Amino acid sequence: MKVIIQVIFCTIAIHIVYFISTMIIGYIRTKRYVPDMEAAWNNVDNLPNRIIIRAPTISPAFYFLSLVIVAILCGLIIFLSKRIFV
Questions:
Q1: Is 75 inside any structural domain?
Q2: What is the count of structural domains for the chain?
Q3: Range of the domain at 24
Q4: How confident is the model at residue 40 (pLDDT cuts 50, 70, 90)?
């Protein structure tokens, strides 16, 4: 039972670090973005056709599968480390 609780906390911690780092990277990229106004001014006709939203949508099933896989890996690592080092 103790290993299961450790696995749950480890999995949640890994996913929290992943989501926070993704948000921080997005924030830094947004702050450092400098639009090229001169090139945009020269190509006014094509601007509406070139709008790209870089926010990929991922299925919630992927996140569930990710939680399960990371939990299994963490469980194996914890179980094997207890077997080897104790």
A1: yes
A2: 1
A3: 1-29+59-86
A4: low
Task: Confirm whether 54 is domain-assigned.
Answer: no
Integer Cα distance of 69 and 75 in angstroms: 10
Flag whether 68 is in a domain: yes
Burial class, 7, CB count within 10 angstroms (exposed 0-12 / middle 13-18 / buried 19+): buried
Percentage of the chain exceeding pLDDT 90: 55
Strand ranges (E), 1-86: none
Structure tokens at 29: 């990229």
**Tokens 């973005």 identify what position?**
33
Pairwise CA distance, residues 82 & 86, whole Å:
6
